[in-house]
Amino acid sequence: MSRKIAIFDTTLRDGEQSPGASMNAQEKLDITRQLLRLNVDVIEAGFPVSSPGDFKSVQDIALTCGDQCVVAGLTRAVEHDIDVCAEALEVAARPRIHTGIGVSPEHLRFKFKGMTLDEAIDQGVAAVRHARRFVEDVEFYAEDAGRAPYEDLARMLEAVIKAGATVVNIPDTTGFSVPWEFGQRIRYLMEHVNGIEDVCVSVHCHNDLGMATALSLAGVMNGATQVECTINGLGERAGNTAMEEVVMAIKMHEAELDAHTDINTTEFAHASRLVSSITGINVQPNKAVVGANAFAHSSGIHQDGVIKNRTTYEIIAPEDVGVSGSQIVLTARSGHAALRKRLEDLGYAGIPDDKFEQIHGAFLELADSKKEIYDDDLHSLMGEQDRNENAIYRLDAVQISCGQPLVSTATVTITDEDGEVCTVCEIGSGPIDAMYSAINKIVQAENDLMEYSVNAVTRGIDALGEVTVRIMDRDGSIFIGRGSDRDITVSSGKAYVNALNRMIDQHRHNAQRVESGTDAPAHI
Ligand code: KIV
Ligand code: ZN
Q1: What is the DSSP letter of 40?
Q2: Which of 137, 169, 398, 512 is exposed most, by the fewest CB atoms within 10 A?
Q3: Is 149 helix (H, G, I), strand (E, B) or coil?
């Protein structure tokens, strides 16, 4: 049997640090359930000291996971962070505190204002000892390990292992490394750090040079037994290692790597769509494993080859990553059972009856006008349901008149979270401008529209139109919103309201942080 590589998912922590990718509590739980279906080994649920919202969310995620996987909370190497994290993880069946401090000359000099390596090691050791008072499983990250001298890194890791760390994380925080050197770094540590053979060695790589997956594999080749990653490679700046890529690469190269994971890879396509739908961050069509073109063959020679035998040009069977070859088409006559079964096959299992009735209603409305409902329509419909749940503002109605030489006019009705209904009419330079002015008049949340794009969900003139918008608030934070409908002006309104809801939610979250008096940053 090959070595088991633990998959540590950080979509809900590092992934959420992507600009515009903030998620509300319900969305985090939806992703948690999907991570459980993927059978990940560890879920990093958040940074509890950063705000009361994050604290509560870590608790909810831990309760949802039960004993199915380890739940980790992030901290700085600071006693108060660790106390708060331990409290949040009290409800976890398998808690892990993930603590750490910088090790590179750049981090010590600038982030830690001239701290010496010895001081950083002492602080790391104290943090691990403190965390071990609460939990048996303590992971230590040596931040910016990718740029640290080998000997400094080895000294820090040896000290924290002696202090009780059960997992040592070697992050390439800045995505600076190249695979051959990163592999050599891991090998050096395996050979020079006393006690390292008794702990789990983890790699956590960023994609600044487009090499996060390759770096993680180099780590695995040289002794790492845990990989930290996110769905769709979401994460700070250029992102983290993409789980679907690293897991499939390990699967395809099990023998050379002497490694396997326990991931249920058939859940990847659904996980990718869910995270994209929740965050509003589109997956590029040519993205490995989960991109729309990952299994498309356009050249005649390639098509001919695949028809003769799939393996001529396809290394992964689409069904192995949950991309179904068959397109089951539902219609208005399909009935409750057929809809429920198709949704289950697409990964939406266990929908409660009352919620299913709402979904069925929306499905019938769509099927009445669109006739044939494809899988992508169902994903889009489910995304719309998720966005409506717990929304602060809901777009109830839109009426637009526009054209040449008319003045574009939009009348919009919105209900707020207290049930108050408001209707406003505005004019604008075009239909979307008029509608967004009307929405602004009701919601009154200052922002700049940075980007607006529209995509057809499926082929055909009657396809659903999915709109994605990016807005920026006064502080320069980005928020993404998405909406889908048969009428793209309605999709546009829904997308904008969704972005505003996210922005307001984040501002409330920030206000809570101020009220709670935390001096911790929102992210590490
Ligand atoms: O990239 C990094 O170093 C991190 C740590 C906090 C683990 O995300
Ligand atoms: Zn990171």
Answers
A1: -
A2: 512
A3: coil
Q: How much is the pTM?
A: 0.90
Q: Which residues line ligand 1 (CB under 6 A)?
A: 14, 141, 143, 169, 171, 173, 204, 206, 524
99/291 Cα distance (integer angstroms): 34
The contacts of residue 14 (CB under 8 Å, 6+ apart) are 44, 204, 228, 230, 234, 235, 236, 240
Distance CA 135, CA 94 (A): 9
Closest-approaching ligand to the CA atom of 141? 1
| Per-residue pLDDT tens over the stretch 95-107 | 999 999 999 999 9
Q: What is the number of other CB atoms lying within 10 angstroms of the CB of residue 52?
A: 15
- Please give the Cα distance from 337 to 359 (Å, whole number): 13
**285: CA distance to ligand 1 center in Å?**
28
| Sign of the C-alpha dihedral computed for residues 153, 154, 155 and 159 taken in this order | positive
Distance between CA 128 and CA 143 in Å, rounded? 15
Q: Could you give the 3-state DSSP secondary structure of residue 71?
A: strand
Q: Measured between alpha carbons, how far is 120 from 99 in angstroms, rounded to an integer?
A: 13
What confidence category does residue 518 fall into, taking pLDDT thresholds of 50, 70 and 90?
Answer: confident
Distance 204 CA to ligand 2 centre (A): 6
CB 504 within 8 A of CB 392: yes
Q: Residue 95 has what DSSP assignment? A: E
What local confidence, expressed as pLDDT, does residue 448 receive? 97
What is the number of the ligand 1 atom nearest to the C-alpha of 141? 7
Helix 212-221 and helix 179-192, axial crossing angle in degrees, nearest 10: 30
Judge residue 151's burial from the number of C-beta atoms within 10 Å of its C-beta, 0-12 exposed, 13-18 middle, 19 or more buried: exposed
DSSP 216-254: HHHHHHTT--EEEEBGGG--STT-B-BHHHHHHHHHHTH
SS3 percent helix, strand, coil of the chain, rounded to 5, is 45, 20, 35
Locus of tokens 């104290």: 126
Nearest to 169 by CA among 254, 239, 269, 102: 102
| Ligand having the closest approach to the CA of 147 | 1
